[in-house]
Amino acid sequence: MFRYGIGAMKLWYRQPASQWVEALPVGNGSFGAMVHGGIEEELLQLNKDTLWSGEPYDTNNYDAVNHLADIRRLVLEEHNYAEADTGALRMQGPYNQSYQPLGSLRIKFDHGNHVSEYHRALDLDSAIATVRYRVGDTTFAREVFSSAVDDVIVVRLTCDKPGTISLTIKQESPLQFTTAALGSDRISMIGRCPQHVDPHFHGTDHPIVYDDNENGKGMRFEAQLQVLLEGGRVSTDSNAVLSVERADSVILLLAAATSYNGFDRSPGLNVKDLAAECRVKLISAAGKGYEALRNAHVNDYQQLFQRVDLDLGGDDNAGIPTDERLEAIRKGAEDKQLISLYFQYGRYLLISSSRPGTQPANLQGIWNDQVRPPWSCNWTVNINTQMNYWLAEVCNLPECHFPLFDLIDGLSVNGEKTARAYYNCGGWVAHHNVDVWRSTSPVGRGSGSPQWANWPMGGAWLCQHLWEHYAFSRDIDFLSNRAYPVMKKAARFFLDFLVEDEHGRLVTSPSTSPENVFLTGDGRRAAVSAGSTMDMTIIRDLCTHCIEASRILGIDSEFAERLEQTRAHLLVPQIGKYGQLQEWWEDFEEVEPGHRHMSHLFGLYPGDQITLEQTPVLAQAANRSLERRLEHGGGYTGWSRAWVIALWARLREGNLAYENMLKLLDVSTALNLFDLHPPHLFQIDGNFGATAAIAEMLLQSHAGEVVFLPALPEAWNHGHVKGLRARGDLEVDIVWSAGRVTSVVLRTTRDGEYQLRIPQEQKIAAIRDQTSHDIPWGERDGLVSIRVQSGLRYDLSFASS
Ligand code: FUC
């Protein structure tokens, strides 16, 4: 656990939020609020992670498989890609469902809006949002947090003059809802979700349908608010408005429940008693009292948050409001501490939107105020969902990774049907869009562009996360019981799915490179071909990880043998006419060379097939591809920019990584530091991706080596990072000065041998364990090898010149 300087870990502002992306998010993994901090009216916009439209449903298009042979013939024999695109439309099913906003709590105060010394903050070290201001000579204060321990949102309103707090509270929702008073100090809101019809895009041009059958389908929800007072009086009226008069202090406890009952069971027909669920939480929370609730919340949260400390040096600008700091960076000012704040905010957001047992962080984590949110606020698994979890292991939040593993489990069940229905293959497959019902089929209903819809690699990419959790933790039980069975079933799909091209190479077909299109020889646009580089890289990855797992677990040697043979025949990465890593199996001209997706660079990051040391020629080609993307305007979404930073980090180009980090803050960051997607949409992937990328600049461990400060920009001359994780269950602290490592600490809970790559021109002076015993090490070609023992701590010191 690390301690921070007071104020350093805060986002803060001198005015209330004037729009949703200025409000401050709190969350316990499942129950979230956007705290607006208004003066006359506080608005808490509320979310619950399991609140989705629709029901479990079979989205498979059972006619799809009848078109597969035609598409393959068009691609592999006729090279008629534009026609293959048309064929792919016939292999689509309906769009999936949408994440829904729960509603809002509006707290109206009677003190007018003439305030001074207004201050609104989010303290990342305690996960508490605060508001404070003065009215005349009276100071009012609010604290808001969402407790994972007690599963309630807690609001505390105080004032330095007794009997001064008077307010009214009401609940409302953009969904169908009713409210009721449950007594003088308690109100409730119940409601239900619509069945969306093809709700992929935001806006109002797609129908919202509520199922009329009262006993029938659809998700239901309930929220209950309980008020505790010190002094004053509380009452409710027939409109379920709750009033507090002349209280000394007020505590609001808010609980919520949905009828979600698992991805494969109807939320409409179940017998969940939502009122009782809320009631139980409120009674328990009210019995504890504010201080106990707050302490439990802070302790629980800090167990996770305080594992990592980052200091990039520079001026202490904590006294300047966050929006002004962001503006200053946009005008060219240097603010390294805003970057460490952004880094920790990414960790904060993951802890707040993804805890064991919750849904994984969706496109907006858990925070969404729209019934028609952008891209349904779903899980887009051709980059966005995976990016959400790039930070989980390296930034020391492996517990937060587990909701993703639960999602993968569900997909591996539904994906078996899709594998059979679309491709007549065994194993499981998932395409690019996933909802809470774990849909796995291509969306689009015959009019979705194949450039995104018909991409069968989502499940295989997600399997990388299972492997990475093992690689970081070396948890054999996890590998054996959770990861490997699902990975094996995903690999089995590809054994059936891969086809031979005319040169005898194994390729995917139909194949796309996510969301990108090329020009065919006769100048037509197309997306569908065979063996795109990303497909082949993901499959190679999956084969390698399954082979490795079979060896570690001592099982399935025959299956591993088959995978080795398959791997040996996979189409290998090619270098194209611009010296770039080729994106498709032919060196097609790109329609949009500055495309936001960096799919063909998967092998460089998040994969490990391309490294500077082991595949220098491919690394050079990847470098060229990245340059070309950027020369043509690439990186224009926040998530795309975050990927660029991580890719530069893997190429050890610290200054370029930093330059792109500044661009991310410049063009893709809202005033509450939420990541933005054009035109001005919140999308959380960029927050998470950039946090992971910053870690990647400081520590890498993907190629069998632990590399210290692989991509340190000149601007980060002095600093330290503590508590990052390297593969092999290693916790690492690094201190540096004048651009050189001055000390490193390693901690592990397992015995093992490690290869450490020391920055060029630096030498280790000594390695000592915590009892100051010198530890022997070997050194060769810039690599230092040491053996470590579980439970010990190792200090590396460096020669001064
Ligand atoms: C992919 C991206 C878009 C957006 C969407 C949610 O389709 O190409 O830019 O991020 O996911």
List the helices and strands and how they pair.
Blueprint: E1 10-13, E2 24-27, E3 31-35, E4 41-48, H1 68-77, H2 81-89, E5 103-109, E6 116-123, E7 128-135, E8 138-147, E9 152-159, E10 165-172, E11 176-183, E12 186-192, E13 195-196, E14 208-209, E15 220-230, E16 233-236, E17 242-247, E18 249-258, H3 274-288, H4 290-305, E19 309-311, H5 322-330, H6 336-353, E20 379-380, H7 384-388, H8 390-394, H9 402-423, E21 433-434, H10 450-453, H11 458-473, H12 476-497, E22 499-500, E23 506-507, E24 518-519, E25 525-526, H13 533-553, H14 557-569, E26 589-590, H15 616-631, H16 638-650, H17 654-667, E27 676-677, E28 681-682, H18 685-698, E29 699-700, E30 706-708, E31 719-726, E32 730-737, E33 740-748, E34 752-757, E35 764-769, E36 778-780, E37 783-788, E38 793-798
Parallel strand pairs: 30-34
Antiparallel strand pairs: 1-6, 2-3, 3-4, 4-5, 5-10, 6-7, 7-8, 8-9, 9-18, 10-17, 11-12, 12-15, 13-14, 15-18, 16-17, 19-31, 20-21, 22-23, 24-25, 24-26, 27-28, 29-30, 31-32, 32-33, 33-38, 34-37, 35-38, 36-37
The structure holds alpha-L-fucopyranose (FUC).
The site of alpha-L-fucopyranose has 11 residues, from loops.
Short descriptors:
801 residues; alpha+beta; Beta-galactosidase, Chain A, domain 5; Glycosyltransferase; Immunoglobulin-like; 9-stranded antiparallel beta sheet; 18 helices; binds alpha-L-fucopyranose
